[in-house]
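Problem: given the chain below (304 residues), write out its structure.
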Amino acid sequence: MDIDLKTLRLLVAVCDARNMKLAATQEHIEPSAISKRITQLEERLGARLLVRGRRGVHPTPAGVALLEHARTILFSLDRMEADVCAFAGGLKGHVRLVASASAIAEALLDDVAAFMRDPDHREINVDIEERVSRDIIRVVRDGGAGLGVCWDTVDFQGLEHRAYRRDQLMLAVHPAHALCRRRRMRFEESLAFEHVGLPPATAVHSMLQRAAGRAGQRINYRVIVTTFDAALRVVAAGLGVSVIPREVVRGHRDQVVLIPLSDPWAQRHFAICFRRFEDLQPSAARLLEFLASHGEATSHADGA
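Solution.
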């Protein structure tokens, strides 16, 4: 069954405006022409899509179902047009980026914002979705996203990758905690105390479990939370200690004490992964270069 896109756009406009005449004005078409198109669509589908009343126009249950599909189709088509335009002159496009919770909690959002503030990039849209590391690799490999950001210790499964940023894992403790005066420590020394951690699916949870296992100990989790910010709030409440990236603590420095971990794995490096650089859309390639250069500059600054 063929359903023309113009009719779908008009249906969405009518449902959004809740008024046939207002939708017609917005779409630069006569109300009678909209009514005719939607009537023909109803006949083709064998279902009533709209109810017209004194208070406006409302979708029927069948109309609501079609409206959801119509929005998805039109959104995908708009994105497709934007992506194709990236190959035809000016730099335009849509970049989908998947990233780990650590990357998002640290500098990634600031770096993407800096990229989008550049006047040369005003026609580039970026979607950012949080995923665990194993899903990041799968989504990028399967073409669901152009770029992925995660730790460089993962199995990239043949994906190309570039260095991004690096960070330092710290132990966050309450200012009155028994460890608060330590200048530096090994992770295993923290295992005598109750911890606040992230869910088992996250990379940081797996890494800490392996570190505890190598020390012949286990982590006693008192609280599991979904974000580093939540973990810091629990630590500030005196309910445990938590391993946190240094860059995440900016808004909590007066509430917790940070102790650098001396373990080699506590120095982490992030990478940007992608299928093949030659296959990237111009907008995605530009974002990749921008993020990689920011990461290199940060690494030089940290090493100075």
